[in-house]
């Protein structure tokens, strides 16, 4: 392009050479005259050029022939305009024919014009297939190289997993814990303050990047204790969590119930995993923070309890000595709450004893002691909303109603009273002790007394300070005839027993009272059962006394008795039930079948007054239990008549 | 005998500035269409995500009594959905808008719980009911701040709950704190909280007098 040269194109001035003679002279053609030149140019006009492409083939052929003839025609020079005239004539003929055809076609009688279906341009299928194949191949190659590159980078990442990303871990940490940036350092908080805690001690920790050389420290995995359960992830962390010294280690709250210097039960408030895992210096940060949070929680709990123990007035003041609170629950029983905090330095020393005591670990008390502080936290954050909505936030519904309902000073002070945590724990422990004692008494009595059977059902629905047990006294095989139901409400320091007859017995925490009551009830059951059996057997009840005034004085309760007569009245059975001595059964015949007149009783009629009773040797009687024996006895006495 | 020490106790309480009688207030409104978005955001921002928004439905009556120089306004409010709760009689003072630097409106607010006969009592005193309406919506809590999102309905003559006629196609949003005098730190907290709601609702010091008298 840069070397383009301008070329001038013009007709040569010289005339065309017509011929060169042998001697070399050139004979020039005479230049054309104006008319000649016009006719020549006219002959050159291609009249077929303007015609449309639709023109039929014969036309073109004709023209070609005409064109072929043209030079000859010109050369023959018949007449210079001849070819032009011929062409125009042909054109006129064609136009006339066309107009005729159109006129006929317009009539639509002899000729109809229809569009000729045009062949679609031929598509070479194979070519497009090949083109597409090639294009797809190119695209696939691009994708494959991209995938390969990703794969290598991924495998590179996997290979470098031993050095985890600090920021990824920080993101993970941020999901579970509160973090904020102060200056150049990242400060976190493990305290429960956002959940309603008002404990003054802060739970701040600092997050920093672990040094590069730390992974080498991790390479020998620290020996894991066999009972640790799921092993904490051993991968080294890029994060380092720095806790203040007072939050390090593992803490738990130990609760003992001591009776005359012996431990009745003990419970440790801590999650089991923390107890077993022990404080490891290179724990995963999640475990470390959880442990620190637990330390803080236990400290708050103990702090609160200690504060209350000092303030709480009681008949026997509670003692706070060091990390231990001693509160008396019931005479002779003390509740000891201790805070155990073991840091890594003295872990061996202090984590030993609680593991021994774990055998009598009480999960219910552990749960409730936890729950008490959680409830306080919940209450601190969940204030009731005012209704109507324009009222101030804060006052409870009771307080809102206090004004319009004209509550007096006494009621207001009652309203403001609330139980402290320690009081609630003491109450729960008292109830726990009472429940244990009741269970013990019921179990031992059921074991001692085989006849009748004692079945106790504990209600599954109970509160931390109230439980209910239903005691069923029945005789095996005769449970449809008679059963004695007792309901015992176990409270905090007392028991309430509702007997079969509707009488209510209030008992103190001294468990012997319950035992005595149950034994009396068992013997009363025997007497009532005998009466019910007698009714079935057709025997008559002559007399019945639940509290018999005769006989030797009982140590506990009164003897009860009844006298039964056979259907025809000739036999008598007397039953006497004593809580201590058991059952005595005597029988008498009246009248006796054989009568021998004596000096004193001369006539037979006196025998109807009834004779002397003879005691049955009860231990020699046939029968599985008391009622069975009674049934057999009655049956034998009835059949003989 | 009790009256004397009690009233003096109230006096000393007022003097030592422990009576929460100042209401810090920011107001705004949001269209019905987008109120769900605002409620969703408030649920996320406010305390107690677990319990959800607290619904309310209140009936408010405004009474005036002719006093010199300006008539005194008293508001009686009751919760329609909590019939057992006491009615509330409330006095709201003139709002102080302050300059641009002050983040919130401050107005004095004194409220007291009362029984249902308060309307009768006020009428006997010579008060006249100016207007009444029903506000229905949700309230939220964030620390000491209370946020209400409510729709104002006209009070029907037949007083049936179903056919309540809304006053507008928008919800009223109020952010308020009741605090003793001089605790301006809370106002800053309110401003920063309002900032967090900014694209959804524009909480501001709304001067109603200017709204009434200014160009529509």
From TrEMBL, chain A:
Bias (Pro residues): 218-235
Annotated spans, Disordered: 48-72, 209-237, 343-362, 380-401
Keyword Transport in record: no
Pfam families from the UniProt entry: Med17
Ranges of compositional bias, category Low complexity: 343-356
Compositional bias (Basic and acidic residues): 48-68
GO biological process: regulation of transcription by RNA polymerase II
Statement: the UniProt record of this protein carries the keyword Transcription regulation: yes
Any single Gene Ontology cellular-component annotation: core mediator complex
Gene Ontology molecular function, alphabetical: transcription coregulator activity
Compartment(s): Nucleus
Keyword entries, A-Z: Activator, Nucleus, Transcription, Transcription regulation
Quaternary state and interactors: Component of the Mediator complex.
Function recorded in the entry: Component of the Mediator complex, a coactivator involved in the regulated transcription of nearly all RNA polymerase II-dependent genes. Mediator functions as a bridge to convey information from gene-specific regulatory proteins to the basal RNA polymerase II transcription machinery. Mediator is recruited to promoters by direct interactions with regulatory proteins and serves as a scaffold for the assembly of a functional preinitiation complex with RNA polymerase II and the general transcription factors.
Family: Belongs to the Mediator complex subunit 17 family.
The protein's name in its UniProt record: Mediator of RNA polymerase II transcription subunit 17
Organism: Thrips palmi
Lineage: Eukaryota, Metazoa, Ecdysozoa, Arthropoda, Hexapoda
From TrEMBL, chain B:
Record has Transcription as a keyword: yes
GO molecular function, one term: transcription coregulator activity
GO BP, sorted A to Z: regulation of transcription by RNA polymerase II; termination of RNA polymerase II transcription
Record-linked InterPro entries: Mediator_Med18
Annotated Pfam families: Med18
Keyword Protein transport among record annotations: no
Localization, UniProt: Nucleus
CC terms in the record's Gene Ontology section: core mediator complex; mediator complex
Keywords: Activator, Nucleus, Transcription, Transcription regulation
Subunit structure, interactors included: Component of the Mediator complex.
Reported function: Component of the Mediator complex, a coactivator involved in the regulated transcription of nearly all RNA polymerase II-dependent genes. Mediator functions as a bridge to convey information from gene-specific regulatory proteins to the basal RNA polymerase II transcription machinery. Mediator is recruited to promoters by direct interactions with regulatory proteins and serves as a scaffold for the assembly of a functional preinitiation complex with RNA polymerase II and the general transcription factors.
Family the UniProt entry places it in: Belongs to the Mediator complex subunit 18 family.
Name by which UniProt lists this protein: Mediator of RNA polymerase II transcription subunit 18
Source species of the chain: Thrips palmi
């Amino acid at each position: 392009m840069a070397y383009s040269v301008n070329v001038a194109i013009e007709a040569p001035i010289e005339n065309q050479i017509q011929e060169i003679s042998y001697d070399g002279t050139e004979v020039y053609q005479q230049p054309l005259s104006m008319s000649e030149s016009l006719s020549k140019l006219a002959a050159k006009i291609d009249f077929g050029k303007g015609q449309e492409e639709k023109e039929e083939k014969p036309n073109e052929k004709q023209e070609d022939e005409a064109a072929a003839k043209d030079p000859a025609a010109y050369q023959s020079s018949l007449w210079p305009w001849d070819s032009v005239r011929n062409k125009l004539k042909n054109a006129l003929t064609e136009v006339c024919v066309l107009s005729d055809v159109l006129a006929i076609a317009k009539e639509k009688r002899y000729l109809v014009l229809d569009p000729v279906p045009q062949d679609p341009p031929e598509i070479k299928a194979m070519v497009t297939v090949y083109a597409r194949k090639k294009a797809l191949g190119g695209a696939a190659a691009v994708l494959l190289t991209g995938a390969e590159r990703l794969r290598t980078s991924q495998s590179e990442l996997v290979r470098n997993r031993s050095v985890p990303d600090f920021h990824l871990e920080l993101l993970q940490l941020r999901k579970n814990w509160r973090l904020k940036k102060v200056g150049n350092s990242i400060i976190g908080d493990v305290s429960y303050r956002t959940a309603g805690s008002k404990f003054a001690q802060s739970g701040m920790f600092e997050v920093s990047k672990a040094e590069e050389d730390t992974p080498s420290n991790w390479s020998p995995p620290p020996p894991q204790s066999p009972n640790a359960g799921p092993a904490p992830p051993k991968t080294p962390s890029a994060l380092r969590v720095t806790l203040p010294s007072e939050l390090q280690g593992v803490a738990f709250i130990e609760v003992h119930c001591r009776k005359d210097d012996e431990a009745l039960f003990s419970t440790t408030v801590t999650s089991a995993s923390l107890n077993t895992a022990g404080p490891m210096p290179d724990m995963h940060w999640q475990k470390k923070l959880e442990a620190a949070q637990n330390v803080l929680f236990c400290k708050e709990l103990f702090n609160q309890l200690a504060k209350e123990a000092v303030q709480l007035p009681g008949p026997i003041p509670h003692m706070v000595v060091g990390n231990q609170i001693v509160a008396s629950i019931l005479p002779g029983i003390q509740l000891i709450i201790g805070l155990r905090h073991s840091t890594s330095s003295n872990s061996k020393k202090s984590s030993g004893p609680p593991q021994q005591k774990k055998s009598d670990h009480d999960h219910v008390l552990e749960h409730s002691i936890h729950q008490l502080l959680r409830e306080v936290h919940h209450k601190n954050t969940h204030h009731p909303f005012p209704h109507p909505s324009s009222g101030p936030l804060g006052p409870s519904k009771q307080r809102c109603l206090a004004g319009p309902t004209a509550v007096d000073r006494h009621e207001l002070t009652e309203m403001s009273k609330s139980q402290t945590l320690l009081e609630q724990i003491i109450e729960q422990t008292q109830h726990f002790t009472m429940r244990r004692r009741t269970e013990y008494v019921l179990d031992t009595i059921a074991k001692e007394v085989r006849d009748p059977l004692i079945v106790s059902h504990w209600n599954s629905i109970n509160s931390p300070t109230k439980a209910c047990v239903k005691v069923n006294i029945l005789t095996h095989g005769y449970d449809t005839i008679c059963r004695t139901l007792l309901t015992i409400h176990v409270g905090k320091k007392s028991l309430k027993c509702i007997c079969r007859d509707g009488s209510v017995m209030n008992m103190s925490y001294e468990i012997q009272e319950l035992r005595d009551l149950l034994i009396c009830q068992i013997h009363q059951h025997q007497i009532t059962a005998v009466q019910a059996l007698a009714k079935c057997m057709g025997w008559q009840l002559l007399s019945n006394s639940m509290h018999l005034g005769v006989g030797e004085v009982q140590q506990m309760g009164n003897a009860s008795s009844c006298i039964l007569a056979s259907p025809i009245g000739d036999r008598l059975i007397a039953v006497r039930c004593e809580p201590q001595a058991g059952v005595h059964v005597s029988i008498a015949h009246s009248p006796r079948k054989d009568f021998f007149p004596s000096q004193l009783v001369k006539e037979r009629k006196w025998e109807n007054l009834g004779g002397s009773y003879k005691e049955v040797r009860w231990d020699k009687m046939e029968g599985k239990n008391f009622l069975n024996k009674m049934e057999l006895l009655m049956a034998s006495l009835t059949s003989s008549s | 005998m009790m009256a004397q020490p009690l009233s003096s106790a109230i006096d000393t309480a007022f003097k030592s500035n422990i009576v929460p009688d100042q209401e810090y207030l920011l107001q705004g409104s949001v269209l019905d269409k987008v109120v769900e978005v605002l409620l969703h955001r408030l649920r996320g921002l406010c305390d107690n995500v677990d319990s959800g928004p607290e619904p309310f439905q209140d009936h408010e009556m405004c009474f005036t009594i002719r006093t010199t120089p300006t008539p005194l306004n008293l508001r009686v409010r009751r919760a329609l959905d909590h019939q057992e709760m006491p009615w509330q009689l409330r006095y709201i003072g003139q709002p102080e808008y302050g300059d641009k630097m002050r983040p919130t409106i401050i107005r004095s607010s004194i409220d007291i719980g009362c029984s249902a006969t308060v309307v009768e009592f006020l009428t006997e005193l010579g008060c006249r009911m100016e207007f009444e309406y029903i506000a229905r919506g949700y309230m939220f809590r964030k620390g000491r701040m209370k946020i209400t999102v409510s729709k104002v309905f006209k009070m029907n003559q037949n007083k049936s709950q179903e056919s309540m006629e809304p006053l507008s196609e928008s919800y009223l949003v109020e952010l308020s704190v009741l605090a003793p005098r001089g605790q301006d730190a809370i106002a800053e907290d309110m401003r920063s909280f309002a900032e967090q709601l900014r694209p959804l609702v524009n909480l501001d010091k709304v001067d109603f007098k200017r709204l009434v008298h200014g160009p529509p």
